[in-house]
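User: Here's a structure from my thesis project, written as structure tokens. My advisor, Dr. K., wants to see whether a designed sequence matches the one we expressed. Can you design one independently, without my sequence as a hint?
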């Protein structure tokens, strides 16, 4: 407290009195981390199931890349595509024919890392992003399915 100006000590002491000490704070944080990890694992499982169901329903190809990136890429693709559909079709001026063209372009991008890199993009930018994708981002499978 000696490094604080005299007129700020009382307020700081009051604030400190309402907080846990460092040891108690660390103990609470560590004890709570297990429940956070369980919640996060359950949340990721829900998101992954939704992404897998969506990919099957809309005939999206499996993603390629390192094993660590595949599920994250699938969740990122699902989130970006649903955000784009909401922004462009539901709230925007696109019709289903316009969306079908965008979906076909999206099916060609099979590199999981590409979808992960675009995870923070706005849905309205998806068409531009798909057009900017390189051959390295596209799969080697038959594009005519």
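Assistant: Designed independently from the structure alone:
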């Amino acid at each position: 407290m000696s490094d604080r100006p005299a007129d700020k000590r009382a307020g700081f002491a009051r604030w400190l009195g309402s907080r846990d000490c460092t040891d108690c704070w660390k103990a609470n944080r560590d004890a709570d981390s297990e429940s956070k990890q369980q919640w996060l694992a359950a949340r990721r499982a829900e998101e992954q199931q939704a992404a897998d169901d969506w990919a099957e329903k809309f005939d999206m190809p499996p993603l390629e890349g390192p094993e660590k990136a595949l599920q994250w890429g699938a969740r990122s693709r699902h989130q970006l595509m649903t955000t784009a559909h909401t922004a462009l079709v539901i709230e925007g001026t696109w019709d289903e024919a316009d969306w079908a063209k965008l979906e076909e372009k999206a099916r060609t991008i099979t590199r999981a890392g590409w979808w992960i890199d675009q995870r923070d993009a706005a849905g309205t930018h998806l068409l531009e992003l798909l057009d900017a994708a390189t051959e390295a981002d596209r799969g080697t499978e038959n594009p005519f399915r």
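When you compare it with your expressed construct, this may help: Residues 33 and 39 are 10 Å apart (CA to CA).
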